[in-house]
Amino acid sequence: MKETDIQNDLASIRSLMERSSKFISLSGLSGILAGVYALIGAIAAYPLLHQAPVYQLSFGGGSYSPAVGYLDTSVSVLAPLFFIAVAVLVASLATGVLLTYQKAKRKGQKIWGKTSRELLFNMAIPLIAGGLLILIFIARGYFGIVAPASLIFYGLSLVGAGNFTFDGVKSLGLCEIILGLIAALYPGYGLYFWAIGFGVLHIIYGSMMYLKYDR
């Protein structure tokens, strides 16, 4: 048997092992579109955030009352900001599921199996924990922690999911965590870090994955 034949056989074996142990149907295009949605959301949120001074959107800033502590004066912007965040999330999830399903169908891979369940489980734990913690921060008026916490917990979910899909997902998660830690140093400017983390980084990651795996 020629050496080239042996190498081809080994490559085929590695490919089969990867297909059985990793979910490789994630769409790079969905990452690009998720980043675009996030940037659109950030643009829509920008004028809303500037209705209140930066200090009010940092660590519970507002007028002080001895009876109840800090009275938040930026509540009027919370509802539209929440709507924008939910709209971006729903659009990203819907696009991701649709494009991933189409890619899995093309590659003949089942979209729902042991590997995809493990991927979702490892993503869900930090996302759910982080989401609940963020809701607590919002209820207490600690708005400056929301953006850093969302980036950090999202990054942790990607690092966990990276064990069951492309290695690039884990790298993206590490970048999100680092960005979240930096964002914690600059409360009141979370929208900019949010746009970079969920927008720019997603577009860069999605483009790399698309060029490497989707074409």
Would you kindly provide a written description of the structure presented here, covering whatever features stand out?
This protein is mostly helical and 215 residues long. The longest helix is centred in the middle third of the chain and has 33 residues, at 75-107. Helix content is 74%, strand content 3%. It has one domain. It has helices at 3-21, 28-49, 75-107, 114-140, 146-161, 167-183, 190-214; strands spanning 63-65, 69-71. A two-stranded antiparallel sheet has the order 1-2. It is globular and about 50 Å long. It contains 7 helices and 2 strands; from the N terminus they run ααββααααα.
Percent of sequence in beta strands: under 5%
What is the residue-averaged pLDDT? Answer: 75
- Order of strands across the biggest sheet? 1-2
User: Which structural class best describes the helix and strand composition?
Assistant: mainly alpha
Biggest β-sheet description? 2 strands, antiparallel
> Which oligomeric form is depicted?
single chain
What is the radius of gyration?
20 Å
